[in-house]
């Protein structure tokens, strides 16, 4: 991991986390590219609309805590992150998952182009 890649991912993931924690699905979706492949724990979708629907279906009070495990610069404008995420709920045990994201520079910003959760 390098500081530059960590900073890129942290910036994007902190925005994502803030929107998830506030249960603002549209704001979550704003962190994704127009053609993002999104695989939560339900069937995959493509694009921000599916991301917003997925997070709208999540319970109020769900929060996310993440920890970067690995980062890789795949190209000048593409960074991969592999992380551990703990999704906490008000009425059930925390769900511990692993998340792989690929973020891509779009203009002056970085957005999620690929998001895939796995439970091991």
Automatic annotation (TrEMBL):
Name of protein: SnoaL-like protein
Gene3D superfamilies: 3.10.450.50
InterPro entries per the UniProt record, alphabetical: NTF2-like_dom_sf
